[in-house]
Design brief:
It is built from eight helices and seven strands; from the N terminus they run βαβαβαβαβαβαααβ. With 268 residues, it is α/β, with parallel strands linked by helices. The longest helix is centred in the middle third of the chain and has 29 residues. The protein binds nicotinamide-adenine-dinucleotide (NAD). The site of nicotinamide-adenine-dinucleotide (NAD) has 29 residues, from α1, β2 and α4.
Length: 268
């Protein structure tokens, strides 16, 4: 990806010490942005990501915050504005699963996933939007006054038995993203989502760890490979850049065709 694409921009990535967030933070740094690496557990991993980003000659630091905690999100963005001057790109990526069939799912399992995956993105978007509106457009930096990228999932539109909390959170992210896109577009703020398919990260290790599991998974992927975190990271860089300046309120599925109803390739 072009090393100059995001030169001079300041990005924050939540859940950036693992998987997709980690690859995204590194790719944003490679594209020339200064990057805040948010994490909630695992400070050593976060510091390693910071070191990789700094090697591109940009600024970076790690910041511990729970995205579902309002005070911690407010403080995280306030510190970024103080230390880096502002924020141009918010990547609301942090997410988790607490899987269970409906009848066995506890309220705590439901609530935790909604709190992190949906409320966390709301809080991050709100705090970023306040700063985008305060600062406005800086033409030398970007055509937009700010970019919010919500990490969604194919489960924004694909139902998922045994994961009603997760699928509901991502369905909610889709409508939140579109509503915020409509509300913030007049302020020249672009809000969009990336919908990953099956990406090789710790969140779904069971689905790709053994050859048998991977073969099962490939039945759902027309393009016939499991995705890598870098597939998503590159899509985020493109979405954050002015190459996508007229893209507002879109979900870009980066899924090897998973949302093409692959079962219909041989039947239906
Ligand atoms: P991951 O488990 O590797 O990373 C998730 C990150 O979020 C971790 O760094 C974790 O510590 C962090 N996190 C969890 N709770 C947090 C909190 N309260 N505050 C701050 N950070 C928190 O998994 P991943 O696959 O990289 O997932 C990243 C995002 O991509 C998630 O939103 C996930 O739903 C989405 N996604 C992943 C896949 C996939 O196949 N891996 C597919 C679709 C969507």
């Amino acid at each position: 990806m072009n090393a100059q694409l995001l030169r001079g921009q300041k990005a924050l990535v939540t859940g950036a010490n693992s998987g997709i967030g980690k690859a995204t933070a590194i790719a944003l740094g490679r594209a020339g942005a200064d990057v805040v690496v948010n994490y909630v557990v695992g400070p050593d991993e976060a510091e390693k990501v910071v070191e990789q980003i700094k090697a591109f000659g940009v600024r970076s630091y790690a910041h511990e915050a729970d995205v579902s905690n309002e005070g911690q999100v407010v403080e995280m963005v306030a510190r970024m504005v103080k230390e880096l001057g502002t924020i141009d790109i918010m990547v609301a990526n942090a997410g988790l699963q607490r899987d269970s069939s409906l009848v066995d799912m506890t309220l705590a399992q439901w609530q935790k996933v909604i709190d992190v995956n949906l409320t966390g993105q709301f809080l991050c978007a709100r705090e970023a939007a306040k700063e985008f509106m305060r600062r406005g457009i800086v033409p030398e930096v970007s055509r937009a006054a700010g970019k919010i990228i919500c990490m969604s999932s194919v489960h924004q539109i694909v139902p998922w038995t045994g994961h009603v909390n997760y699928a509901s959170s991502k369905g909610g992210v889709g409508m939140m993203m579109q509503t915020l896109a409509q509300e913030l577009a007049p302020h020249h703020i672009r809000v969009n989502a990336i919908g990953p398919g099956a990406i090789r990260t710790p969140i779904n290790r069971d689905a790709w760890e053994t050859p048998e599991a991977e073969a099962e998974l490939l039945k759902l992927i027309p393009y016939q490979r499991v995705g890598d975190p870098e597939d998503i990271a590159d899509a985020v860089v493109a979405m954050a850049s002015d190459l996508m300046d007229y893209v507002v309120g879109a979900t870009l599925y980066v899924d090897g065709g998973m949302t093409l109803f692959p079962g219909f390739a041989t039947g239906g």
